Amino acid sequence: MTFTQFPMQREIVLTAGNTKIGVMPEISLVSHFQVGDWPVLYRASETGNVKRWGMPLMIPNFSRLKQGIFQEKGTSLPAHGFGRNLPWTVTQQDASSITIQLISNEQTRSQYPYEFVFTAHIVAGEGTLTYTLTMENRSDETMPIAPGFHPYFTVAQQDKAQIGVEGLPEVDPPTIQWATQPPNDPYPFPHKVTLTIPKGGILTIAEEPVNGNYALATMQVWSEPSTAPDHDFVCFEPVVTSEDGLNRPADRLNIPPHSSQQLILQLTARPA
């Protein structure tokens, strides 16, 4: 479909050597990551549903909260948070990097009553995409948060059983019924997982430590059955914690008043 061809009009393109990254700041979406001829991230060409492509940032919460309620404050938050529904502002941009920002406002306070600045810094390197997320709490109270990334990796349905997985021993693609019962399961994320993607190459999903600390403890593995439109992807999602995690103080991040926390995700792709 031509209407989803890269780059679209609203995509900002970052380049480094043979690497191209697309970013749509208005929905904080990394919309494209390509190394050589390999489109690592999927684009929903059948439906054009932009919620189903690239690598969205899910903030302040990954997945659903029980009854949609953020218990601490008795407010409602949508599945995967509001970050992908609100416009972010570009604060810096050059040929290979971009910085976008979301600042708390009337709309966010009704769902998540904290004063914050979320900053995403996305950099194209030779075969790499580096994403640094800074979460600044400007409130006088601790700010709970449980963000995550939701990358859609391009894999044809018939090739999913041939994916090679290193670092998630419980995930065995040949034994999964991808066409009829695809996975939707959380696993411990050892901060580095390497996938061998058929007809693609070697893909490494890694969290870089910040001051010796890691934040992304869980990896959610998910895909769609062959009956769903736009199903030629597999998601390996590095997240702070699994579903309803914002309501679990021990599992989420708790950022002290007037301080910030950072996490760094890096994707490295080597085409076959």
Would you give an account of this structure?
This is Aldose 1-epimerase. It holds the Pfam family Aldose_epim. GO terms for molecular function: carbohydrate binding; isomerase activity. It contains one helix and 22 strands. By secondary structure, it is an all-beta fold. The chain has one domain (2-271): Beta-galactosidase, Chain A, domain 5. Strands 8-9-10-11-22-18-17-15 form an eight-stranded antiparallel β-sheet, with no helix packed on it. Strands 1, 2, 3, 4, 5 and 13 form a six-stranded antiparallel β-sheet that branches. The mean pLDDT is 96.
| Major sheet | 8 strands, antiparallel
Helical proportion? under 10%
Shape: globular
Radius of gyration based on Cα positions: 18 Å
Number of DSSP helices? 1
Strand order of the largest sheet: 8-9-10-11-22-18-17-15
- Please write the CATH class name: Mainly Beta
* CATH architecture call: Distorted Sandwich
Mean pLDDT rating: 96
Distance between the termini: 25 Å
Order of H and E elements: EEEEEEEEEHEEEEEEEEEEEEE
DSSP, total strands: 22
What is the quaternary state of this protein?
single chain
Domains (count): 1
Pfam families: Aldose_epim
InterPro entries: Aldose_1/G6P_1-epimerase, Gal_mutarotase_sf_dom, GH-type_carb-bd
Protein name: Aldose 1-epimerase
GO molecular function, one term: carbohydrate binding
Concise synopsis of the structure shown:
With 272 residues, this protein is mainly β. It has 1 helix and 22 strands.
Describe the SSE topology.
Blueprint: E1 12-16, E2 19-24, E3 29-35, E4 38-39, E5 55-58, E6 69-70, E7 75-76, E8 89-93, E9 97-103, H1 106-109, E10 116-125, E11 128-137, E12 143-145, E13 148-149, E14 152-154, E15 164-166, E16 184-188, E17 192-197, E18 201-208, E19 218-222, E20 233-239, E21 253-255, E22 259-271
Antiparallel strand pairs: 1-2, 2-3, 3-4, 3-5, 5-13, 6-7, 8-9, 9-10, 10-11, 11-22, 12-21, 14-20, 15-17, 16-19, 17-18, 18-22, 19-20
